[in-house]
Specification:
alpha+beta; 4 helices; about 350 residues; about 20% helix
Length: about 350
Amino acid sequence: MFKHPAARSCSRKRSLGLTLVELMVALAISTVIVIAAVSALIVSRQGFTTVDAASQLRDNARFATDLVQRLGIQTGHSSIDFAGSNRTTNDQTNPPPSVFGFNNAMYAGSPQLYSPTTRSNSSEVGFGSDILVLGYQTSAPYSGATVSDKSMIDCFGTATTELPVDRDARFYNILSVGISSGEPALMCRTGRNFSTEATSSTSTVTLTDTTTQPLVAGVENFQVLYGVDGVVANTEVTASPTGVATNYLRADQFAVPDDPDSIKTNKNWRRVRSIRIGMVIRGPLGSAQETLAQTYYPFGRAAGASGGAAGSALSSSDDPGTVFTPAADSRLRQVVTFTLHLRNDQGL
């Protein structure tokens, strides 16, 4: 049958359009593609966030390790003016040790350093974390100098320019876990103990010019053990020194009962030869790929230990924080463990 050319043209135009079914299929396919693309973008972004957080954790770990090791190297250093002479009857008979600490405690902010606050709330951020106190003296570059040779630094990396006024004067760096801007951090408090030469059996350390600042963000667990030379827990040391660490003790195991002037306790502290440090550093919320509850061991796992049970690698149920199980909060975490060997003799 003959059709007018105009009719045939209209028929072809109608056949070039989309039916409702075809349009719905196209929309469904497009939706699937968009969902897949968005999902890939979200996964890629999450992966980038995790990689970035892991990199930041490694940087924080390196910085904390390098700084604590640097502070440990200078611990116990004595000025040449005092190190080259014997103690006299005018000196203190029981000066405070250059290295000591407190178990499961935080610095209360008082100038009296021997008055920390015990961490008693197990749900508190930083519960189980310890306090580490490192003392040192600066040295004069030459006889009669009024400022030091700037070879000693405080925990902020600033060279200490002052000189000690007598044999038992010390500069102190106090490391502990605190809260900064709502997040846990490794905090440092610096101070000076400028004593006067007088016969005394006191072991008190009262700080002057004390300041505190955060050093490393995200440190929520800070554990310290002390490698001692022949010291038995809570017993006055009587064995002859060997110069090396024979075992590790917590800070609370140095105290000797019935020792009101801390003479026996300080004697134990002077036998510290090395310091074992363990930390757990956390990243921001959402930095982990999965939200899982995990258990961390700041002192590491003993070789061959399955599951890292309590007691492996110096962890103990008697030492809060050495077996650390934070809430499942989608944070990436890293354990940092190292041993610091003291260079200077701690005996005064």
